[in-house]
Design a protein that fits this description.
It is a single chain. With 124 residues, this protein is α+β, with helices and mostly antiparallel strands. Helices cover 32% and strands 23% of the residues. The chain has 4 helices and 4 strands. The strands form 2 sheets. The protein has a two-stranded antiparallel ribbon. β1 (57-63) and β2 (69-74) form a beta hairpin. α3 (98-107) crosses α4. The longest helix has 17 residues, at 2-18. The protein is elongated, with a radius of gyration of 29 Å. It starts with a helix and ends in a 7-residue tail after the last helix.
Length: 124
Amino acid sequence: MKNVVALLLLALVATATAFTGTPLQLTRSSPAAARSNARSTLVMRERACDLLGKTANRKARVVTFSHRRIHKVQQVNLQWKRFYSDDLGRQVRLRLSTKGIKTVNKYGSIDAAAKKFGVNLGKF
């Protein structure tokens, strides 16, 4: 009788401690992410120009030989471009459209173009 009571008490304690353990860690942190300087290279970004905000034309249509109108997406021609910012004293790497690159050339520097379009270069 004592053995059965002891066995039931042991089973009760085992099940109680099974549910009160350490909680599961829902987010994984890799050692590489801990070493990085708060800028991750694997961030999903919108396909938009950082300076002008140009996005894809989703309403483009192609007319086939049989005169069917098929919708297609015309993506923005985005290029990674590095500019030296005099205000920040360092280089900034932006994802600009080709028209955005021409705009920077027109204004003479990335600082003047960013000021004109209200872009904070500090986050790049």
